[in-house]
Structure formats: C-alpha cells, structure tokens
Task: inverse folding
C-alpha cells in the first residue's frame, strides 16, 4: 500500500515537472510572454469506456461531481494533454479528446514562435489553424499549450508537426489514444 501511494505521488510529480521543462524552453525563446503558473492539482481517474461512433472522439472516466470534477478541466497524462472535461455526472465524466471535431486548443510553437489553434479533425492527427506565418513552421517542431483560453496551463506538451502541405499543418499528438 505504501509503495502504491509513493508510486502515485511520483507520477504526479513527473506530470508537474514535464510541462515545466517545455515551458522553460518556450520562455527562453519567447521572452516577452507573460506566464502566470498557479499551483496545479491532479486527480487520477481510470478510463471506463471509449465509445467511438465514427465521428466523435471521447471517453468516459470514473469521477464526477462527487469527486470534484468540473466542466472544462484539463485532462493530461504523462505524455501530454488528452483533452478536457466536456460533461460531468455524479460519478462519471466525459472527456472530449483533442482529436475530436469539436476540440479547439490554443497552442504555440516555441521554436518558430507561432501561436495557433489546434483543431481536431476526427482522425489520429489534428490540424493547426489560424497560424500567422505557416512558412516559419518546421516539420518535427514541438507544439505546446499557450495558456490562452484558461483551460490548459501554458507549456504542456501537445505533439509534433508531422506535415506541412500547401499551408495545411498536421500535428501528431504525443498521447497515443489507443493505448
């Protein structure tokens, strides 16, 4: 029991340190960005079901109002962001994945200093939209949360730019949703 508690504490610490590493890289390159990081609180919640209707991408987690889960909370795992809480019941919550057609996440690219919106498109990849200068982006460049919008703190890992095709920018999320 003691080892299980210690293991859970170490996982939480790892989740809080990994985003800070990305944030430090971003801040070194984008010196005029004001970042205010508040204390982050985590709650582990097992996935109960991942129904897929061919269009929407979401899953159900154990935990709801009774456990302090509220709408629009960020959902993260060790690799990066997963999505946000879309609906909350007494003991269950529905997580809208970042790959869902209805998902929009404010992001930035630390290397090329571009802000954009990560738009889910229903596939395993997502699209960057509203990029001010697509020509500055590079394949393999890291994408992190920008902190705008108030749901995801800045610097959380999102994914990597996989392709640039005639102004269409595709991002492969770090999170492997099938796992």
Result:
């Amino acid at each position: 029991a003691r080892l299980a508690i210690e293991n859970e504490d170490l996982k939480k610490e790892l989740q809080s340190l990994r985003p800070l590493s990305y944030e430090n890289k971003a801040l070194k390159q984008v010196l005029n960005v004001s970042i205010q990081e508040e204390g982050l609180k985590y709650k582990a919640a097992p996935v109960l079901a991942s129904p897929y209707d061919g269009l929407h991408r979401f899953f159900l987690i154990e935990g709801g109002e009774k456990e302090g889960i509220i709408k629009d909370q960020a959902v993260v795992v060790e690799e990066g962001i997963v999505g946000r809480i879309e609906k909350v019941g007494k003991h269950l919550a529905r997580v809208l994945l970042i790959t869902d057609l209805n998902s929009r996440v404010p992001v930035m690219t630390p290397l090329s200093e571009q802000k954009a919106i990560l738009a889910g498109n229903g596939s395993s990849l997502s699209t960057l939209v509203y990029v001010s200068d697509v020509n500055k982006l590079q394949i393999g460049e890291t994408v992190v949360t920008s902190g705008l919008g108030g749901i995801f703190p800045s610097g959380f890992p999102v994914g990597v730019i996989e392709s640039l095709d005639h102004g269409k920018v595709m991002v492969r999320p770090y999170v492997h949703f099938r796992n």
Notes: The longest helix spans residues 2-29. The mean pLDDT is 82. The chain is about 15% helix and 35% strand.
